[in-house]
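User: Teach me something about this protein's shape.
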Amino acid sequence: MEKRVVVTGLGVITPIGNDVAAYWKSLLEGKSGIGRLTAIDPTAFDCKISAEVRGFDPMQFGFTKKEIHRTERFVHFAVASAFQAIADAGLDLDKEHKERIGVIVGSGIGSLQIMEAQTQVYYKSGPSRLTPFLIPSLIVNEAAGHIAIRWGFKGPNACVTTACASGSHSIGEAFRILQRGDADVMVAGGTEGSITALGLGGFCALKALSQRNDEPEKASRPFERDRDGFIMGEGSGVVVLESLEHARKRGAKIYCEVAGYGASCDAYHITAPDPDGYGASLALKWALKDAKLNPEQLDYINAHGTSTKLNDKVETLAIKLALGAHAGKVMVSSTKSMTGHLLGAAGGIEFIACCLAVQHDYVPPTTNYENPDPDCDLDYVPNTARKATVTVAASNSLGFGGHNATLIVKKFK
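Assistant: First, the predicted structure itself:
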């Protein structure tokens, strides 16, 4: 018999807040984290805006100066979010069996910073001058590895890399591990820190980014008629998941229950979504089936909602295919309108938004929604957070390569 799984800890580093309380407050207030690029000189790029993490100090989360120098930004974010989530869960690690605690934290890219810097070193001075930290700094699985090393977690440890669905797949696979009984606790989520010349330049070359440079806070406008691309973001979202049996035994507070997980592939194109929305619809449909829920029981969807012309149209179609007549009644919002697109970390922070929506019965808005798009005709909770009963919520993530993932949470009873 499959074990029930609950959420007991949350942690975030985001462009709109570096802890869960600040993040949630910003979401409900419709606060934007998007502004003029400061991480790099934006002069040469068509897109000159981003959603950067500000006021972040890794030393507040246990890093020494030497560790900061020897690790990369995506690792700093992941460890900081895990630090928060583990503390929030109230885990007494002196009493836990650490071989029964695992980690799955994904990233879409890992570190571009060290790759760019060391490429210059190579061409200037040759291979003998490369840092021995090059490979262990840039590889994507190091976030999960560093978390396990920091706290001594010896259970299942892995990294999922499925582009912008990485965080959601990581949480979903951690959920499956707990269901099977292969661990008691899993630390899971996504992290990203790739606002660099190569990262920004690559997405500019794809014509994927907004060029609304004079109005950064209005640039991300999911499902809206005048959207022109997404905004690169950075940060991390990590949760503590536990088997219900384990959580009850230690008297843990419970945010909500993880009810279902669906994963699918468009099998269509390396960057463009399947235009009929069928692949993405399967993830949502299968997540509902996994949760043993009918479409009519779904109250809220935190959409992938990137603010690109094709994604938002296709995701609207996918929701209609999966939910049928109920699609017009479900509340849908894209918090990327405020956070920008955190790539591999998006699924982590958006899953947390769903957990908080279920806990507080509030739905964060889709900001910058001014002119409706005839192709996007659902209830996108425009501009203002909505007080509403949220018993069941879903988080959608769609990634390059056609990777789709949907996670469903529900009130714990």
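Now, about its shape. The chain has two domains: 5-249, 261-410. Residues 20 and 129 are 41 Å apart (CA to CA). If you'd like, I can walk through any region in more detail.
User: That's plenty for now, thanks!
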